[in-house]
Amino acid sequence: MIDEMKKQLGVMTLDAALALARGKGMDLIEVVPTAIPPVCRIGEYGKYLYEESKRAKEAHSRQAASKMKELQISASIDPHDFGVKLNHAIEFLCDDMKVRVKLRFKGRQKAHKEIGFGVVNKFVLDVAAWGQADSPPKMLGDRDLNVVISPLPRNRRAKNPRAAQLPEAAPAEEPDDDDDEEETEETEETEETSSAPSKPSAPPEDLPPAP
Q1: pTM confidence score
Q2: In contact, 102 and 139? CB cutoff 8 Å
Q3: What pLDDT is stored for residue 161 in this prediction?
Q4: Percentage of the chain exceeding pLDDT 70
């Protein structure tokens, strides 16, 4: 038994626990029903449900955060590197993961942040068939530009390009009937030749005596 101040009161009967809770104008809440004996606490049932709901939401948020991948790009990123990062983002989105795109301004790039915004907006546009931004790209501090992209529902999401690039299995070659027939005919001819009776060889003629 645990009271409203989370102090352990020891083991007591159900009637005694109910009487104690009612005497304080509160409820008796069973918090660990599988324990032996079950664990109960004194408190307000409505507040208890609110706290449980809040804990469940926090756990869900932590789980969602663990399914997020981060990609870092720059305002002067090379087109090839941009394509590589884009492919990684598409793969993560197809695996139902969120993607955080982070662009850090360096040196003089901070004076032309519109270039960085253009790069990030292009990134978001290029992955639009697989995911959408939770909110427009925004600055975090003075140097970092961030945007979080969430995967689209599977029924609205484009196919995974990685799966489309997998090589297809080569079809099995069908046997050539003509070749089989030719081989069969050759076999039959060989059998007929071998089964024919062999002719007796002519007796050797008498050779003249040696001089």
Answers
A1: 0.50
A2: no
A3: 84
A4: 73
- Residue 37: asked if its preceding bond is cis (omega within 30°), the reply is yes
At residue 9, does pLDDT exceed 50?
yes
The closest of 200, 108, 48 to 116, measured between CA atoms, is 108
Cβ count near 176 (within 10 Å): 10
Task: Check whether residue 30 and residue 107 sit in a common domain.
Answer: no
Q: For 130-148, what is the mean pLDDT?
A: 93
Reference 99, options 73, 80, 60, 117; nearest CA is 73
Quickly list DSSP for 199-210. PPPPPPPPPPPP
Q: Please report, for the domain that includes residue 105, its CATH number.
A: 3.30.110.10
Q: What is the mean pLDDT of the segment spanning 13-19?
A: 91
Q: How far apart are CA 147 and CA 132, in angstroms?
A: 10
The total of structural domains in the chain comes to 2
Do both 81 and 146 map to the same domain?
yes
Q: What is the CATH number of the domain that holds 41?
A: 3.10.20.80
Residue 183 lies in a domain: no
- The answer to whether residue 175 scores a pLDDT higher than 60 is no
Contact yes or no for 71/85 (Cβ under 8 A) = yes
Model pLDDT, residue 180: 52
Question: 72 with 158, same domain?
Answer: yes
Q: Show the domain range for 31.
A: 14-62
